[in-house]
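Students often ask why inverse folding is considered easier than folding. One informal answer: many sequences map to the same fold, so there is more than one right answer. In these notes we will look at a single instance of the problem. The structure comes first.
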């Protein structure tokens, strides 16, 4: 498949509003790809060459380098490229315009294909070490010399992380279903396969090569992360029990880091909720698993919690996150020791046990976990009585837990990979005291501080994740309640993510002084959600404006365990808003 066709389709997708229409255009494109090309085409469309958990290098070209690439390919000076970039605000448009006028656009050019582009970008991403930047620039400008202006536009956006088609993973699954089965009905099956193998490209390749029946045979396996199940939230015990199906396993909610443990003999791999391998950060956890999990192969989930080295008491999440930042892993595992609390099992000795109901899974888990000082199952109790649920919640809070998670125990209470459903409902202290609800937001911009705050950021612009359009619309500006330490930390953490200009996936009507790459996630409390003319979350899905969080304040918790796409979604905010309006 020619890359020119891809670039044209990208342009059409981008200029089309409405997700269904976008999906249809993308499905047409997928239909034209050969089975071998489909996964590469998807990689180029999501601007990610490999799933994160494979730990392969990714292409990430800084704007500065992209300027050099264009200058070299179009035989113009870097300042000419910079002028064009400032004029258009878009590196892709700059490449398009400058190559259009370039004499080189070109008699001897080789036609770019999906495969040649993918291979070149993959090769570039693997270059490292001294002198590699020079070679990267040469390779990329070689690609551009062969590129037509429209191809250059999308290539540049792809390599600089500025591609914005508005197609999130679920829309891509819809498009795959449409392209290869004729309609969107197979989406649920495709989604299931994606949730257990965490690889969109693989699902696409299997579907295009062997059809839907083959996709259904994609099973979870030890060593490949399974997309984690998440919880919804409610504040009323009676409603929780109704939603969860009358009876629930009510577990304490531990304030730690979620871990998915894959054990194959002595080999132990730990995945975070962002699906990163965190085994090297937690050698002590791997050792505890080797010693205390009596299964040859298994996939189990639990919470890693920091504990006090002398008293053994649980310490807060922030303490645990020190383990993530420090390089001296051995010393840190002594300074911040941890305990493990397991709550689920998905795979046991060659068998996928994820669809077995909750309590039976817990029994299986109980059988393989040797309870010792630092390893145990989560504390939990089955109840159908709302008063008892409230009492367990109070016990949990009084003993220093975050709250409880009520889990469905009925016949259909299998583990739902990748979904946030009513099978798990969390109840936290912050929802109960009536004042606020916490959300996890992505920092996208900042306003310079004045007076005492000069040199620091005075206010932070924060966004939710729009899971339908793959964008980050703002929901609030947080400017009060910061301690001096918080302000210092904002500065030091955010400095590395400063952008020359607003990321196209960030949607904002508020003008920030500084824009950031949307990567850092923080926990924010707010009084309520309101319809706003200033903020944009859900604007296209509601009437009257977007949603904003009133009186937002930062709790001090950096959600290092969450990626930007795991922030609170616009869908969740709309659901909370409707609940708030109804009550
Ligand atoms: P929160 O911000 O409330 O921690 P979240 O968005 O991080 O929620 P959710 O999936 O909504 O994540 O809530 C479930 C999280 O709670 C899990 O990811 C896990 O890390 C943590 N957790 C703590 N105790 C338990 C438990 N007993 N069972 C399941 N998850 C637990």
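Output (designed amino acids):
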């Amino acid at each position: 498949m020619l890359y020119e066709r891809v670039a044209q389709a990208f342009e059409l997708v981008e200029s089309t509003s409405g997700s269904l229409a976008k999906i249809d255009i993308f499905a047409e494109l997928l239909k034209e790809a050969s089975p071998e090309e489909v996964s590469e085409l998807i990689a180029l469309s999501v601007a990610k060459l490999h799933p994160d958990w494979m730990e392969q290098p990714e292409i990430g070209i800084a704007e500065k380098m992209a300027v050099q690439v264009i200058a070299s390919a179009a035989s113009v000076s870097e300042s000419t490229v910079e002028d064009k970039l400032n004029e258009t605000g878009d590196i892709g448009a700059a490449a398009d315009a400058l190559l259009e006028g370039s004499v080189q656009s070109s008699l001897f050019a080789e036609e770019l294909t999906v495969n040649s582009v993918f291979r070149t970008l993959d090769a570039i991403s693997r270059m490292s070490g001294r002198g590699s930047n020079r070679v990267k620039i040469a390779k990329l400008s070689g690609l551009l010399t062969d590129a037509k202006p429209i191809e250059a536009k999308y290539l540049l956006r792809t390599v600089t992380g500025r591609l914005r088609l508005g197609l999130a993973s679920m829309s891509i699954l819809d498009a795959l279903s449409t392209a290869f089965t004729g309609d969107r009905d197979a989406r649920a099956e495709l989604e299931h396969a994606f949730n257990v193998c965490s690889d969109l490209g693989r699902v696409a390749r299997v579907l295009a090569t062997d059809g839907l029946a083959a996709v259904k045979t994609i099973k979870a396996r030890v060593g490949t992360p399974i997309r984690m199940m998440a919880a919804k939230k409610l504040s009323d015990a009676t409603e929780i029990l109704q939603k969860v199906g009358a009876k629930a396993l009510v577990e304490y909610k531990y304030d730690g880091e979620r871990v998915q443990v894959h054990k194959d003999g002595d080999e132990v791999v730990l995945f975070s909720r962002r699906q990163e391998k965190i085994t090297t950060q937690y050698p002590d956890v791997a050792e505890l698993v080797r010693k205390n999990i009596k299964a040859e192969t298994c996939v189990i989930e639990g919470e890693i919690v920091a504990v006090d080295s002398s008293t053994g008491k649980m310490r807060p999440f922030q303490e645990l996150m020190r383990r993530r930042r420090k390089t001296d892993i051995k010393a840190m595992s002594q300074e911040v020791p941890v305990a493990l609390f397991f709550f689920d099992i998905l795979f046991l000795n060659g068998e996928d046990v994820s669809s077995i109901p909750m309590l039976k899974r817990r029994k299986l888990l109980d059988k393989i976990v040797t309870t010792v000082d630092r390893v145990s199952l989560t504390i939990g109790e089955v109840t159908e009585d709302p008063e008892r649920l409230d009492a367990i919640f109070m016990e949990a809070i009084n003993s220093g837990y975050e709250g409880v998670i009520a889990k469905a125990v009925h016949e259909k209470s299998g583990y739902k990979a990748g979904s946030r459903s009513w099978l798990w409902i969390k109840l936290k202290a912050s929802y109960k005291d009536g004042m606020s609800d916490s959300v996890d937001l992505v920092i996208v911009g900042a306003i310079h501080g004045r007076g005492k705050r000069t040199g620091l950021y005075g206010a932070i612009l924060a966004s939710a994740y729009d899971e339908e359009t793959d964008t980050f619309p703002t929901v609030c500006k947080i400017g009060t309640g910061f301690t001096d330490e918080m302000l210092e930390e904002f500065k030091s953490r955010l400095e590395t993510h400063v952008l020359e200009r607003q990321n196209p996936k960030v949607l904002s009507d508020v003008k920030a002084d500084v824009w950031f790459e949307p990567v850092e996630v923080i926990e924010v409390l707010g009084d309520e959600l309101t319809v706003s003319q200033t903020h944009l979350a859900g604007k296209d899905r509601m009437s009257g404006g977007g949603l904003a969080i009133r009186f937002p304040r930062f709790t001090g918790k950096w959600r290092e365990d969450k990626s930007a796409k795991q922030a609170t979604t616009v869908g969740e905010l709309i659901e909370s808003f409707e609940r708030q309006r109804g009550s």
